[in-house]
Write a structure and sequence with these properties.
Layout: H1 8-33, H2 44-98, H3 105-128, E1 130-131, E2 134-135, E3 159-161, E4 169-171, H4 175-188, H5 233-286, H6 290-315, H7 318-324
Antiparallel strand pairs: 1-2, 3-4
């Protein structure tokens, strides 16, 4: 129908051009930003899913850093225990040498001097090994001190956050092993609390260790005091066994720390796998497919050109009405 008031063809062309322009604008926005979803209008459900996945990925990235820091913490403690084992082994060698009847009093005095120096270093390692400014084993070696001595490994709870949710935690407590180790070392080195030669037991409050005759061993006489024996072997013999127990206690703690560190390493690998796949899922929702979107933009540009041409043609139909009136 020819009409001056309503040009249906032009209206249709205008609607087509409007839709094509909107599609072209969307394609250009996606290609310029690299994101398929730039607002909730683009994909409301997809944006909700992607937001949740991104939050999970971010949390796992932090958890991965947590595991690496925790492994470093455990390795710091394990390294100190490695040196502790070396010192205890040397002390055991000295006790074994002192227990031999061929050793003279002068020999034992020299051995005891080295033994005392090693005892002081044991105290130093236990009280000063720290990570990030926090003592790992024991702030004090006096068991009756107020407040009670503590260290990060002495805490009843050593919990690691290994995931993005509150339930993803891991218990790495080794407080029992630390206490056992400190007690074992204190029994073998009665000057363990500082090597000042005045205290017995850990911190001077525990009952001193006894030699093979039941006589208390006092600080500075662990491998030198004859305790009534002509060869001076009583203290040395008793100390050998105590040092063996101390070495075993240190080994047990090192094993526990190593087991926790190994588990954290597996946690890190698993988090890395989950994070990679979660990020990939987020990308499939949020990222622009440049091949497809470039094709869409080209199609929209061609449609816009065609629509514009047809609008021009439809607007010329009104001249037909004027020709009828001539």
């Amino acid at each position: 129908m020819l009409s001056l008031h309503t040009n249906s063809a032009a209206l249709s062309a205008q609607n087509s051009i409007s839709r094509t322009q909107s599609a072209l604008s969307t394609s250009q926005t996606r290609l310029s930003t690299g994101f398929r979803v730039n607002s909730a209008m683009d994909d409301a459900a997809g944006l909700q899913i992607a937001t949740r996945l991104k939050a999970q990925t971010s949390g796992m990235a932090m958890a991965m850093r947590n595991t690496q820091n925790s492994i470093s913490l455990l390795q710091t403690g394990e390294g100190a225990l490695d040196e502790t084992t070396t010192i205890l082994t040397r002390m055991k060698d000295l006790a074994t040498q002192s227990a031999d009847g061929a050793s003279t009093t002068t020999d034992r005095t020299a051995m005891q001097a080295e033994y005392n120096a090693l005892t002081k270093e044991l105290s130093n390692i236990m009280q000063n090994t720290s990570f990030g400014g926090t003592v790992l084993f024991s702030t004090k070696l006096d068991t009756a001190a107020t407040p009670a001595p503590s260290g990060k490994f002495q805490n009843a709870s050593l919990t690691f956050q290994i995931g993005a949710s509150s339930s993803e935690k891991m218990d790495g407590s080794v407080s029992t092993q630390v206490t056992t180790m400190l007690t074992a070392i204190g029994s073998a080195a009665v000057a363990f609390d500082g090597g000042d030669g005045t205290n017995a037991g850990v911190g001077g409050t525990a009952a001193p260790a006894n030699d093979s005759t039941g006589t208390p061993i006092v600080a500075g006489s662990e491998i030198s005091d004859a305790s009534g024996a002509s060869d001076g072997s009583f203290n040395a013999n008793a100390t050998i066994d105590m040092l063996s127990k101390a070495i075993d206690a240190v080994g047990s703690l090192r094993s526990s720390l190593g087991a926790v560190a190994n588990r954290l390493d597996h946690v890190y690998n698993n988090l890395s796998n989950i994070s990679t796949n979660t990020a990939a899922a987020t990308g499939r929702i949020m990222d622009t497919d440049f091949a497809a979107e470039s094709s869409n933009m080209t199609s929209s540009q061609m449609l816009l050109q065609a629509g514009t041409a047809m609008l021009k043609q439809s607007n010329s139909t009104s001249s037909l009405v004027m020709s009828l009136l001539q």
